[in-house]
Design goal:
Elements lengths: L1 H8 L3 E2 L8 E6 L11 E6 L3 H6 L5 E4 L11 H5 L1 E2 L4 E7 L5 E2 L4 E6 L4 E7 L6 E9 L14 E7 L9 E7 L6 E2 L1 H32 L1
Parallel strand pairs: 4-5
Antiparallel strand pairs: 1-13, 2-3, 2-12, 3-6, 4-8, 6-7, 8-9, 9-10, 10-11, 11-12
Length: 215
């Protein structure tokens, strides 16, 4: 018993780093514009943001800063509640590796039947639209299903007035990696196995001697 207490107290388990939020990847489901043949994105929502939004009534939005551009036309901004963080990390790629793209503001919310993602620059006299996406769950499923499975996204990259036409994407959640033993833990487990095997051989040997004496 003491042996096991000593060995297991010295074992370490390398747990996956606790996520600060949910991460999603988006890739093209169809090509409607030559510029976006290999376009993909990846973004991470702040901890608790997804669950809060999907459990909220329609037209609930959160934004991570005060919008100071021209007022009036953006219902999601007018309704949005300011919070410290919405999207903590946004990356995109046009065919190579994903690269960080830091917008000044990010917004995430829920409409009547979709989730809404918006990355923008807070410029004067009006906003500069970096990326917008409407996320829709598969038929018959609630929006909360997008936390665990692929969903459709209607997206637009670039300025809302002058940018290229929209395109369709498939958004999938990036699942957390499972815990794996550290090398020290594997060594400790091997040590325990060796000791148990050695103890078993000694026990079998002693039993054989006793049997021989009795004969």
């Amino acid at each position: 018993m003491t042996l096991f207490a000593v060995v297991f107290s010295s074992m370490g388990v390398l747990n996956a780093t606790p996520a600060n939020g949910l991460t999603f990847k988006g890739s093209l489901s169809s090509v409607s514009h030559p510029v976006f043949r290999k376009f993909e994105i990846e973004y991470t929502l702040a901890d608790g943001m997804f669950d809060t939004i999907v459990s909220s009534p329609p037209n609930t939005f959160f934004i991570d800063g005060e919008y100071t551009g021209a007022p009036g036309y953006y219902d999601s901004i007018n309704r949005a509640t300011v919070v410290p963080e919405v999207v903590t990390d946004f990356k995109f790629s046009g065919g190579g590796s994903l690269q960080p793209l830091n917008g000044e503001l990010s917004l995430f919310g829920i409409t009547e039947d979709r989730l809404y993602l918006w990355i923008l620059q807070n410029t004067e006299p009006r906003f500069t639209d970096i990326f917008t996406g409407y996320i829709k769950a598969p038929a018959g499923l609630p929006l909360s299903a997008c936390k665990f499975q692929a969903c459709e996204m209607s997206a637009k990259y670039g300025d809302g007035y002058m940018g290229p036409p929209g395109f369709d994407m498939i958004q999938t959640p990036v699942m957390e990696s499972e815990s794996v033993p550290e090398p020290s833990a594997a060594v400790a487990l091997g040590f325990v196995a060796a000791l148990l095997m050695k103890r078993r051989r000694k026990t079998l040997s002693a039993q054989a001697v006793v049997t021989a004496d009795l004969g």
